[in-house]
Amino acid sequence: MKLNEIAKNLGLKCDSNIEITALNSLLDANENQLTFFENKKYLHDLAKTKAAAVFIREEFVKELPSNTIALVCEEPYLTLAYASKFFAPKIVEEEGSECVIGNNTKILPNVYLGKNSSIGSNCTIMSGVYIGDNVTIGDNVTIYANVSVYRDCKIGSDCIIHAGTVIGSDGFGFAHTKDGQYIKIYQNGNVIIGNRVEIGANTAIDRAVFKSTIIEDGVIIDNLVHIAHNCRIGHGSILVAQVGLSGSTILNEYVVMGGQSGTSGHLEIAPFTTIAARGGVTKSITTPKKQWAGFPLFEHKEWLKLQGKIARLLKK
To answer: Per-residue pLDDT tens for 213-234?
Structure first.
């Protein structure tokens, strides 16, 4: 859309007719994309943005780079939510080429194949699977019954996806008005899954708000795991049953998370970290090769000592 058309639809003032192709974050947006600035702690990112325009409050306009247009509004995050609908793709494409299927691939009955999608060689796609539009699946992939792969997602080679899993569902993103109404932020990114990944039954991996939720090569995910929007799961990591990761969590390589453990959003976990079952990570872990447990989180040895002391107190 033209920038002045977007502004008009949102009740804002702007004369520029530059073409806007997408929404993006402050640091990732380019000269044809639109972003927003809400939180003061990202002020240093605002000065570095290359976005064509920014939803921003009047008090911060002076901090913008000279070539970035200010779209002045009272609530930038809420305004972004309204704007996100303009860039949401169609739920189902009506036009496009039929799905391309590789050699020796078996497609069982009652499978839906979207437009402009492709499936590699030697794959098995079982009954009840939904594969949306613009999906790419590599070679030697097994997808069990009733898996849903939403539009625009990518799956590498040598992967196994167990029954009932959903890849690319919307991330949990809402902005609220002053009277408490929640406005949906359309999740316009996708999910990218690497090679040699195994995903257990009834797992949900949400698509990104912008860009991609990424599962790197060699990751193993158990049943009933939830991975929120814009997470990145590093090479060789293991997520055991009922793990929950909040949005924009980054796991570096070979992180292990025990059953029912979880994270707050926007944090990073160092390589070769182990989080014991039911551990709650609320801050970034920067030192690699350590074991952690409990909530609030302790180093595992200290947590065991604490449990011992509590047990002795209870005996008295």
So the answer is: 999 999 999 999 999 999 999 9
Both tokens assigned to 16: 């520029």
Positions of CATH 3.40.1390.10 in the chain: 3-87
Tell whether pTM > 0.90.
yes
Structure token pair of residue 274: 């182990």
Q: Which of 162, 229, 235, 300 is catalytic?
A: 229
Give the CATH architecture of domain 3-87: 3-Layer(aba) Sandwich (3.40)
3-state DSSP call for residue 267? Answer: coil
Residue extent(s) of CATH 2.160.10.10 domains in the chain: 100-301
CATH architecture of 100-301: 3 Solenoid (2.160)
Nearest of 100, 98, 202, 116 to residue 153 by alpha carbon:
116
Structure tokens, 31: 């000269």
In tens, the pLDDT along 274-310 reads 999 999 999 999 999 999 999 999 898 898 888 888 8
Asked about 266 being catalytic, the answer comes back as no
d(CA 230, CA 121): 29
Residues 6+ apart with CB under 8 A from 180: none
Measured in degrees and rounded to the nearest 5, phi and psi for residue 306 equal -60, -45
